[in-house]
Design goal:
The complex is a heterodimer of chains A (161) and B (595).
Chain A: H1 11-24, H2 31-42, H3 47-57, H4 61-70, E1 82-87, H5 90-94, H6 97-108, E2 121-126, E3 138-140, E4 143-145, H7 150-158
Parallel strand pairs in A: 1-2
Antiparallel strand pairs in A: 1-3, 3-4
Helix pairs in contact in A: 1-2, 2-3, 3-4, 6-7
Chain B: E1 6-11, H1 14-18, H2 21-34, E2 41-46, E3 58-61, E4 65-67, H3 75-84, E5 94-95, E6 102-103, H4 110-113, H5 131-136, H6 141-149, H7 152-162, H8 174-183, E7 190-195, H9 204-211, H10 213-227, E8 231-236, H11 241-256, E9 261-264, E10 269-277, H12 287-294, E11 318-322, H13 323-335, H14 337-341, E12 351-358, E13 364-369, H15 374-381, E14 391-396, E15 402-405, H16 415-420, E16 429-434, H17 439-453, H18 459-476, H19 484-498, H20 502-506, H21 509-528, H22 554-558, E17 564-565, E18 573-574, H23 584-588
Classes of the chains: A alpha+beta (161), B alpha/beta (595).
The complex binds flavin mononucleotide, iron/sulfur cluster (3 copies) and FE2/S2 (inorganic) cluster (2 copies).
One iron/sulfur cluster (SF4) binds at residues 283, 301, 454-458, 461-462, 499-501, 503-504 of chain B.
Chain lengths: 161, 595
């Protein structure tokens, strides 16, 4: 098996990734769960990791890379400590999702899909988080914030260091 | 075990958790312990109750009293006043927005009173993590009947007779789909549950999974028996961690109870279910794409035929049904087709769950009999439009759907009637828009969504939607030209006709339906460079009318970029070069002085 060398991947991570690959190796359609669990461990999917997974699962690299780029869950570049996901689903949009996005953009100089220089935040627009009752909705890491207003959004974000 | 005198059904759905139901739960338990009521009062964490916007919500049983917007600091008051002294806490009860009347009993609240709970019969009534509570409310009885007393043909006939149609969008008769798959020859077959719920503005599948996961499993087992499948998959989006957690638990419990896995109920029938987590691609909700995705590939649709009923997952015969569709099945088998078909219209039977959101007073999930009018849903259940604004349109069916204007509000909600007015039932997202919504901007919004989500396999969908978006961006950006509207119409027709899958085939619908009913708004944008709803920033210029200005300074306070100068006793002034058209001042001015 190929060796996994990358500054963002510790040997402890490699052990855990090996486990992930081993538990899924025999199942059909393992690529997506393996990519997801590996990304959970490292935080993103550097190309070296994709190489490693391809050889671990015995699949062509192009196929694994194809899957990794197709799904929005996967990221080939490092993310910030806090991922801000602003809902741009219909219900949230009608209730002012765009204005919230604009406020964040302006305040932190972040564009959609960007990560700030200090890696504090990554900003993403997502399509309906299934909490439309609380529109407009924003999720930071695991925390869901409902009824967000442009005036409140920066205060909420400032809680995240 | 002591029987509790009161059961506090506290909502622990995603919405209520986001509004702090876990924190309130802890405070409540603490207070109950402090008052020595642990044996008398039981707190049950339920799934979504439906009225998410008022969360956290709690129902006190057996009294039926409904509390809303609970905070940890309310716990001592509730325990002391209500649970000890029997005096419900007035200030935490529901107040009807229009009449300002306080309504203590849940079933008296108009939002609930007009509903009919079939699919959602257990929502908020049981602990979704307890299989015993599900069984205590007739859960798995339909499955038991199907497995022990019915032949596969009889199950299929029952579901066909019930008139149940797929709730995931297209409304294909469920029983007929099963029949196709049952006839296919193969030693391996699959039953799949579509829990991808990609439509923005729809969250009923999430709520069903969180509130009543066993109902979905039960439906899948019955479907499996009907087509003779041995393996099932639930394709659930990763964004729904609580649903996945509860499903996992439900699967584990069902296996322990011998209701899932080998030799179910000793009948010799084997069927097991695994969860497959999606990875964020709207197109994966499409059935052939979903199957590709479970196979570990890029989720791209493929042409049909062959249909999945013959050649589906791993090329085996497969049935794919939506969460809500499957959650209906157990009760249909238990209570019979006739019972189910007694509610609804000629073409659409039973009930449908809708997600009411947008510019409406009572936001949440509602389950209504098919055939109810849009007006009843929006005004009687939804409580009408807030802030005294005017209704403009209701958007139904997500990106594949359309907008319905005021004059069609008396349309009965059924698959055919809704299609007649240019929308579709879809998965049940109902988004209400008031006069401040720009319909051209909405079309642009949907096209942006579609453009983002097109898998790119076919040119008309990939390039056509890109071009539609460009034109709409141009119009909203104040650069619309004569001919643009005609181009939108022509392109839409081409995309509809020549796309491979449902995404492309319905992609132009938001454009077509807004053009159909709100063409004047397009004309205003293109020819008069005006956005009547005041939404398209490039067409707006904010000015203070010094005569109307009451010099209150509100606008000055809210402007995020300091574009407004104001001093006491002076009318405000907006510096156009600094203004970013954020609308904050326009919304803040209570005197209509900004235009
Ligand atoms: C682009 C696209 C996305 C879809 N997304 C979903 C979805 O998220 N959930 C769903 O149940 N059906 C979705 N569907 C419909 C499914 O392809 C399929 O018709 C449905 O799941 C079948 O179940 P039903 O007959 O019980 O409705 C989608 C269809 C298309 C074309
Ligand atoms: S219509 Fe669009 S989403 Fe569907 S297969 Fe073609 S490109 Fe992909
Ligand atoms: S629209 Fe926004 S930026 Fe412009 S003046 Fe008003 S508050 Fe300031
Ligand atoms: S909010 Fe309206 S009334 Fe008040 S100062 Fe601004 S423009 Fe004048
Ligand atoms: S539209 Fe934002 S959560 Fe559904
Ligand atoms: S999440 Fe509590 S009512 Fe919907």
């Amino acid at each position: 098996m190929a060796r996994l060398e990358h500054p963002d991947i510790t040997s402890d991570m490699t052990t855990r990734i090996d486990e992930v690959i081993n538990t899924h190796r025999e199942t059909a359609g393992a690529v997506i769960p393996v990519l997801r669990e590996s990304q959970d461990i490292v935080g993103y999917l550097p190309v070296e990791l994709i190489d490693y997974i391809s050889s671990g699962l015995n699949l062509p690299k192009s196929e694994v890379l194809g899957v990794a780029t197709f799904y929005s869950l996967f990221s080939l570049t490092p993310k910030g400590r806090h991922i801000i996901r602003v809902c741009m689903g219909t219900a949230c949009y009608v209730k002012g999702g765009k204005e919230i996005m604009n406020r964040i953009r302006q305040n932190y100089g972040l564009e959609e899909g960007d990560t700030s220089e200090d890696r504090r935040f990554s900003l993403e627009a997502v399509r309906c988080l299934g909490a439309c009752g609380l529109a407009p909705v924003m999720v930071i890491g695991q925390d869901t914030h409902g009824g967000v207003t442009p005036d409140r959004v920066i205060n909420i974000l400032e809680e995240y260091e | 075990m002591a029987t509790a005198r009161l059961h506090l059904m506290l909502c622990g759905g995603t919405g209520c958790q986001a509004s702090g139901s876990r924190e309130f739960h802890a405070a409540l338990e603490e207070e109950i312990k402090k008052q020595g009521l642990k044996d008398e009062i039981k707190v049950v964490e339920t799934g979504c109750n439906g009225f998410c916007a008022l969360g956290p919500v709690m129902l006190v049983q057996p009294e039926g009293i409904f509390y809303q917007q609970l905070k940890p600091e309310h716990a001592p008051l509730l325990v002391e006043e209500h649970f000890l002294k029997g005096r419900p806490v007035e200030k935490l009860l529901y107040v009807e927005p229009a009449s300002k009347e306080t309504i203590p009993i849940m079933t008296d609240i108009p939002f609930f009173a007009h509903q009919k709970f079939w699919v959602m019969k257990n929502k908020g009534a049981i602990d979704p993590e307890s299989i015993d509570e599900y069984i205590a409310r007739d859960g798995y009885f339909g499955m038991a009947k199907a497995l022990t007393e019915m032949r596969p043909e009889e199950i299929i006939q029952e579901v066909r007779d019930s008139g149940l149609r797929g709730r995931g969008g297209a409304g294909f008769p469920a029983g007929l789909k099963w029949q196709f798959a049952s006839k296919a020859e193969s030693d391996i077959k699959y039953v799949l549950c579509n829990a991808d719920e990609g439509d923005p503005g729809a969250f009923m599948d999430r709520s069903i999974l969180e509130a009543d996961p066993h109902a979905v499993l039960e439906g899948m087992i019955i479907a499996a028996k009907a087509i003779n499948a041995s393996q099932g998959y639930i394709y659930c989006r990763t964004e729904y961690p609580l649903a996945i957690e509860r499903l996992n638990l439900a699967i584990k419990k069902a296996r322990e109870y011998g209701l899932l896995g080998e030799d179910i109920l000793g009948t010799g029938f084997n069927f097991d279910i695994d969860i497959y987590q999606g990875a964020g691609a709207f197109v994966c909700g499409e059935e052939t794409a979903l199957m590709r995705s479970i196979e570990g590939k890029r989720g791209m649709p493929r042409p049909r035929p062959p249909f999945p009923a013959n050649k589906g997952l791993f090329d085996r015969p497969s049935v794919l049904n939506n969460v809500e569709t499957l959650a209906n099945v157990g009760q249909i088998i238990l209570n019979g087709a006739e019972w189910y078909a007694s509610v609804g219209t000629e073409s659409s039977k039973g009930t449908k769950v809708f997600a009411l959101s947008g510019d409406i007073n009572n936001i949440g999930l509602v389950e209504v009999p098919m055939g109810i009018t849009l007006r009843k849903m929006i005004y009687d259940i939804g409580g009408g439009i807030p802030k005294k604004r005017k209704f403009k349109a209701v958007q139904l069916g997500g990106p594949s759907g359309g907008c319905v204007p005021e004059q069609y509000l008396d349309t009965a909600v059924d698959y055919e009637e809704i299609a007649r007015v240019g929308a579709i039932m879809g998965s049940g997202g109902v988004i209400i828009m008031d006069e401040k919504t720009c319909m051209v901007d909405m079309a642009r919004f949907f096209m942006d969504f579609i453009q983002d989500e097109s898998c790119g396999k076919c040119v008309p969908c990939r390039e056509g939607t890109r071009r539609l978006l460009e034109i709409l961006n141009k119009i909203c950006g104040g650069k619309g030209e004569p001919g643009d509207i005609e181009d939108l119409e022509e392109l839409s027709a081409v995309i509809k006709e020549s796309s491979l899958c449902g995404l492309g085939q319905t992609a132009p619908n938001p454009v077509l339906s807004t053009l159909r009913y709100f063409k004047d708004e397009y004309i205003a944008h293109v020819y008069e460079k005006r956005c009547p709803a005041k939404k398209c920033a490039a067409l707006l210029e904010f000015r203070v009318d010094p005569d109307k200005c009451k010099k209150c300074g509100m606008c000055y306070k809210v402007c995020p970029v300091g574009a407004i100068s104001w001093q006491k006793k002076e009318p405000a002034y907006i510096d156009q070069s600094k203004c970013i058209q954020c609308l904050s001042c326009y919304e803040a001015c209570r005197f209509g002085a900004i235009d």
